[in-house]
Amino acid sequence: MYRKFNINDTVKVKLTDYGKECLRKDYDDFLERGRRLVEDKEYVPFEFRLPEEDKEGYSEWQLWVLMEKFGRHTGWGFADLPFETTILLKECDLR
After folding, report:
1. Which helix (H) or strand (E) holds 89?
2. Could you tell me which of 8, 19, 11, 21 has the C-alpha nearest to residue 86?
3. Of 23, 39, 91, 93, which residue is 20 to 30 A from 6 by alpha carbon distance?
4. pTM of model > 0.90
């Protein structure tokens, strides 16, 4: 039996070291683009922080954000995955 789950609902995943590296690279790329936009002005970026993790190492994401951030880093035959393959869903979000 299938149940519905909205991509705006939250999921929990355990990021791998590779996933954390991907987030850091995305942040560095963002900073570089920002610096080019404001070349003649002082640019003060916000601080990079990894998502908060619970005591088991899971971080919480809206599903669409997880797909947007890591979709290009996942697929058949990828040696490194950005997060472990088990995803936790809140039972109350399943319809």
Report:
1. strand 88-89
2. 11
3. 23
4. no
Buried b (16+ CB within 10 A) or exposed e, 14-29: bbeeebeebbeeebee
What one-character-per-residue DSSP string does 43-69 give?
--PPPP-PPP--TTS-EEEEHHHHHHH
Gap between the Cα atoms of 15 and 74, Å rounded? 13
User: Angle 37-71-87 (CA atoms, 0-180°, nearest 5)?
Assistant: 130
Tokens of 16: 């791998």
User: And the tokens for 6?
Assistant: 């909205």
Extents of the domains making up the chain: 10-93
HSE, side-chain direction, 13 A CA sphere, residue 5: 17
Q: Are 70 and 59 in contact (CB under 8 A)?
A: no
